[in-house]
Structure of Protein preY, mitochondrial:
Amino acid sequence: MQRGVCGRLTSALRGTRAQPPAVAQRCVHASVSRPSPDQSERTWEPPRAFDPALLEFLVCPLSKKPLRYEASTNELINEGLGIAYPIIDGIPNMIPQAARMTHQNKKQEEMEQH
């Protein structure tokens, strides 16, 4: 799926004269085919960090609202719904079932029950 998105992005960028955003340039660069190293040649790589520039494009799949990156927990937070999406190896897991409820939302629910 990523190659399809990057392919469309590459095509769109070729028709523009403006300098594309850094995220788009990385996506285009990543779509270039490279020979894959054989298993014996691979070296250990540290986990990838999340690129905060992606926040320009990412929204909550449930509310379609912007997300906030929380570096201490490595999550994307939707403060309105009180949910947090995990980021694994620099890749946000935007599947709603993978999100966790944040502590703030639990406090609000407790207050409403009393």
